[in-house]
């Protein structure tokens, strides 16, 4: 549930069309409404085993390592209540 004053980041502010991802909404804003969007680039990770220097988003690298290099990576999610917990 969104708090007061917040908007759903996947709904167009101009026509209220809903999108499944922020990137889809941003494409729509540029294409349909000719609006500039903030371009946040997600960090890409270099595959240490590929000589071509191919880079991936983290979840795609896990899949690439399994499919191409036959390496299974165990993924864990860590949650912290504050920065001090993170720094310990």
TrEMBL record:
Specify the C2H2-type domain's residue ranges.
12-33
Q: Membrane-spanning regions, if any?
A: none
Q: Which Gene3D superfamilies match?
A: Classic Zinc Finger
Query: Cross-referenced InterPro entries, in alphabetical order?
Result: RegFact_GeneExpr_CellDeath, Znf_C2H2_type
Alphabetical list of SMART domains matching this protein: ZnF_C2H2 (SM00355)
Q: Which domain of life is it from?
A: Eukaryota
PANTHER family, from UniProt? C2H2-TYPE DOMAIN-CONTAINING PROTEIN, PROTEIN CBG17840
Protein name, please? C2H2-type domain-containing protein
Species of origin reads Brassicogethes aeneus (Rape pollen beetle)
């Amino acid at each position: 549930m969104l708090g007061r004053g917040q908007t759903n980041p996947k709904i167009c502010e101009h026509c209220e069309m809903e999108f499944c991802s922020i990137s889809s909404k941003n494409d729509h804003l540029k294409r349909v409404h000719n609006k500039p969007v903030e371009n946040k680039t997600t960090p890409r990770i270099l595959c240490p085993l590929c000589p071509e220097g191919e880079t991936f988003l983290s979840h795609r690298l896990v899949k690439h390592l399994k499919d191409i290099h036959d390496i299974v990576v165990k993924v864990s999610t860590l949650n912290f209540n504050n920065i001090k917990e993170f720094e310990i």
